[in-house]
Design brief:
alpha+beta, CRISPR-assoc_prot_TM1795, about 425 residues, RAMP_III_fam, CRISPR-associated RAMP protein, Cmr1 family, 4-stranded antiparallel β-sheet, about 25% helix, antiviral defense
Length: about 425
């Protein structure tokens, strides 16, 4: 049965900021959404159809990309970095300096909502999770691996997304106090954002991706090259071009899913005497959790040779490990020590190829700090905490998804797998 087409048309309504007068002309970047927006509103996980593109969110993303470039390319450190950031992007507190970068969003058009699950946008969701799982939108099923937080939501409004095709104009200009260095830095920051950033939540997994359709400065329509990315301490790999952005996103999502848990890559093939879709994980974490908790079924005695190695945490945390079966461990959570979250250093999304097509892209942010993060495993039912090891280079050859893809750390191995 085909999905019912569900869409809600919203008129163009975007409040305009009261911005200081300036002799600087407004520069314009015309953007088009190429993957759905996840969340992005005032309420977590709920999209805002009246204001889907927020200046505050864009400014936050620009600060992130500016900090990356400042640390990796412009050699700003600690105090000098903080002072430069506050001077350019604005400080914190009542007496903080105003930003030298003015932004406004205009002409937000073609805002439509779609649902992760079938049914009308205002209907309630099935209470039975198995029934709900079978009612996922056919259009969105290929992206279920990155939209998984919606699987456990009970309210329809938290399972809605804003459909690709939305367009908007971002206008920007600089204060008269800005100098030529400021201008060059803002231009490069904007260029990184339009290439690898996004709008809404889960942008590092490709949600809320967009392309520049037109711009007063042609540099924003030019893809960043692999060499330019390397100059900022990052790594970029690309798959062959396709005519459709959603096809490119699907490729990127499938590569990540298969690397982590695909049959023959992240998991063994199932044995001949079972109806299960896959065999045991080729990663070390499940067996080490069985060892730590001293709990396992007769069919799943711990056997992985790598032992204490929670390498998938490098892709971002927390990770909740859920075992099926009464003789297996209860749920446990891998998280950074003394913190709840670590943002993924990996960005996957479709990008424009500069010729009208799209490519699945995987961008690795700098890993120097990530690989040395202290982590812990927490039992959810008892709150017991065990210190564990995130990464140890000497064990890479004992983990098949790594050894079969060039060895090295999990992100580098994934980048090798991504283009196979």
């Amino acid at each position: 049965m085909k999905d019912k087409k569900m869409a809600l048309l919203i008129p163009d309504f975007v409040p305009k900021e009261n911005l200081p007068e300036s002799k600087e002309k407004w520069q314009e970047i015309h953007c088009e959404l190429i993957t759905p927006i996840y969340g992005g509103g005032i309420q977590a996980a709920v999209p805002d159809v009246l204001m889907p593109i927020r200046v505050t969110a864009i400014r936050g993303q620009l600060r992130f990309w500016w900090r990356l470039l400042a640390q990796q390319k412009w050699n700003l450190k600690e105090k000098s970095l903080r002072e430069a950031e506050f001077r350019l992007w604005g400080g914190i507190g009542e007496e903080a300096a105003a930003s030298l970068v003015f932004l406004r969003v205009l002409d937000v058009l073609n805002v439509k909502q779609i649902s992760y699950f079938q049914g009308s946008l205002d209907s309630s969701l099935p209470s039975d999770k198995k029934v709900r799982s079978k009612s996922k939108s056919n259009d969105l099923k290929p992206y279920a691996y990155v939209l998984f937080p919606m699987d456990s939501e009970e309210k329809r409004e938290k399972t809605l997304l804003i459909k690709e095709g939305l367009t908007w104009n971002l206008q920007w200009r600089l204060s008269e106090k800005a100098n030529e260095t400021d201008r060059e830095q803002v231009l490069e920051t904007l260029r990184w954002w339009v290439n690898f950033g996004g709008v809404g939540a889960r942008t590092r997994r490709g949600c809320g991706a967009f392309v520049v359709k037109d711009s007063s400065n042609p540099v924003f329509k030019q893809p960043l090259s692999i060499d330019e990315v390397m100059q900022a301490g990052c790594k970029l790999v690309l798959r062959p071009s396709t005519n459709h952005a959603l096809v490119a996103w699907k490729e990127a999502v499938q590569r990540l899913r298969d690397f982590r848990q695909g049959v023959g890559i992240g998991r063994n093939h199932p044995s001949s005497d079972t109806t299960k879709p896959a065999g045991r994980s080729r990663w070390a974490e499940p067996d080490e959790i069985r060892r730590i908790t001293r709990t396992h079924s007769d069919q799943h005695r711990p056997e992985h040779p790598a032992g204490d190695l929670f390498a998938r945490g490098v892709f971002g945390m927390p990770i909740i490990f859920h075992f099926i079966g009464g003789d297996e461990p209860t749920d446990t959570t891998l998280q950074p020590k003394c913190k709840e979250r670590m943002a993924s250093p990996l960005i996957i999304r479709p990008v424009g190829d500069g010729k009208g097509g799209f490519q699945a892209a995987a961008l690795s942010l700098p890993l120097d700090k990530v690989l040395n993060v202290s982590v812990e495993l927490k039992k959810q039912n008892k709150g017991t905490v065990h210190p564990v090891t995130l990464w140890e280079e000497s064990k890479a050859q004992q983990v098949k998804p790594l050894s079969q893809n060039g060895g090295g750390n999990p992100i580098d191995a994934f980048l090798n797998y991504f283009t196979k």
